[in-house]
Amino acid sequence: MKTGTVFKTFIAKDGRTVTLRSPRWDDLDDLTEFINSLIDEGAQITAYQKVTREQEALWLGQQLADVEKGTKIIIVAEVDGRVIANSSFSKKTGYSEHVGVLGIAIKNGYRDIGIGTELMNELILKAKDMGLKLLTLSVFESNDRARHVYEKVGFKETGRIPKELFKDGKYIDHTYMVKELTKIP
Ligand SMILES: CC(C)(COP(=O)(O)OP(=O)(O)OC[C@H]1O[C@@H](n2cnc3c(N)ncnc32)[C@H](O)[C@@H]1OP(=O)(O)O)[C@@H](O)C(=O)NCCC(=O)NCCS
Question: Is residue 30 part of a domain?
Fold first, then answer.
């Protein structure tokens, strides 16, 4: 897939225009600011340490290589020329080649205006196009908004590891959710 390919443009609930596209190398600064802003706010994601531009460059290089190889789909959302959300799924290997593992985050200030739902629906379409049969994800049990969005697009909780996460002095269950993309016998 070519970098920067536009998948969809839509108007968010607050009237801003949102473009969903594949990432580009020159998204590096926006993506560095994006991940560090999530860490700063203490978002309910598994990443917990801020990154330098150099560390993010290594990470982005690997991501773009995986997209090029066809083992990963990444969709970023752009508003006013800046990347404000990142989402992806990675194809598993071996006996789980039919499975994709999904992740998503939206920058503070751009939530609750429909971008997460649009990204999820676009990822599901792309996973089907790739021939995947299952999408899986994991989410903090306390992340009510994320769980709501995942359920809305058809994910179901299939299990949890009690107290797998320890954040801000509290143990939190890690919930696992699955969406079947096609009827599996
Ligand atoms: C979780 C996340 C991806 C959702 O994306 P989003 O763009 O905010 O979601 P949308 O605007 O499409 O939809 C939000 C929905 O959640 C609902 N919602 C908001 N707060 C809620 C809460 N505390 N409990 C339940 N539902 C909630 C909204 O009403 C809306 O529902 P509706 O579409 O049925 O009206 C985004 O908020 C985010 O990135 N959060 C921080 C990082 C994170 O948690 N990532 C997920 C890690 S697993």
Answer: yes
Instruction: Flag whether 1 is in a domain.
Output: no
Report the pLDDT value the prediction gives residue 4, as an integer from 0 to 100.
Answer: 87
Model pLDDT for residues 34-44, shown as the tens digit of each residue: 999 999 999 99
Q: How many domains does the chain have?
A: 1
Does residue 115 lie within any of the structural domains?
yes
The protein residue whose alpha carbon is closest to atom 42 in ligand 1 is 105
Q: Distance (Å, rounded) from C-alpha 60 to C-alpha 66?
A: 10
Q: What is the largest CA-CA distance in the chain?
A: 46
Ligand 1 pocket residue status of 79, Cβ below 6 Å: no
Provide the domain limits for residue 158. Answer: 6-180
Per residue in 141-176, pLDDT tens?
Answer: 999 999 999 999 999 999 999 999 999 999 999 999
Is the shortest distance between the CB of 86 and ligand 1 below 6 Å? no
Strand 99-106 and strand 134-140: pairing?
Answer: parallel
Distance from the alpha carbon of residue 114 to the mean position of ligand 1, in angstroms = 8
3-state secondary structure of 42: coil
pLDDT surpasses 90 at 1: no
CATH number of the domain to which 172 belongs: 3.40.630.30
Q: Hey, what amino acid is at 10?
A: F
83 inside domain: yes
Ligand 1 centroid, distance to 157 Cα (angstroms): 17
